[in-house]
Amino acid sequence: MSAARMRLQKDLEALELPSMAQIEVITLPVAKDLPVLRLRIAPDEGYYKGGKFSFEITFSEAYPIEPPRVCCLNRIFHPNIDYQGKVCLNILREDWSPALELQSVVIGIIFLFLEVSDKEPLNKDAATMLSRDRIEFAHAVRNSMAGETLHGQRYDNVLG
Question: Is 88 noted as a catalytic residue in this protein?
Fold first, then answer.
């Protein structure tokens, strides 16, 4: 068993998920590859309350030296998630440390939904709207979560 696989197994065993999160280990057909994780977040407060969001978390053989890669599988209107699903989270880039565990990544992703920030945006339209008018931002989030089109972009219906 590789060092990355052993560390990931340890991280999964120690994982304590809040009620708004679920994680599934997806077995890949090639046994030598590390498994892919599917994280589902259902925020119970804030702008994104009522939505259900899925993320794919992948690991390289360099884990934990290198951070996992996280991709949002839903097209959503969020300042820190772009239209291709890339996630802007400091612990997945410059603040990554091998001392961080999968628990930190999950909490970081949840934090993106509970404490929405216009800092370091990947979606500049969402960030500008958040900083300019939080009420307008709240309406845009609700409409986008229902699958409507905003600024020429069609979003996934992530409600119920």
Answer: yes
Determine whether 51 is exposed, middle or buried from the number of CB atoms within 10 Å of its CB (0-12, 13-18, 19+): buried
Write out the chain's pLDDT in tens, 160 residues: 789 999 999 999 999 999 999 999 987 656 567 889 999 999 999 999 999 999 999 999 999 999 999 999 999 999 999 999 999 999 999 999 999 999 999 999 999 999 999 988 999 999 999 999 999 999 999 999 999 999 899 999 999 7
Which structural domain, as residue segments, surrounds residue 147?
A: 3-154
Among the options 34, 70, 88, 129, which is catalytic? 88
CATH code assigned at 19 = 3.10.110.10
Q: Is the pTM of this model over 0.90?
A: yes
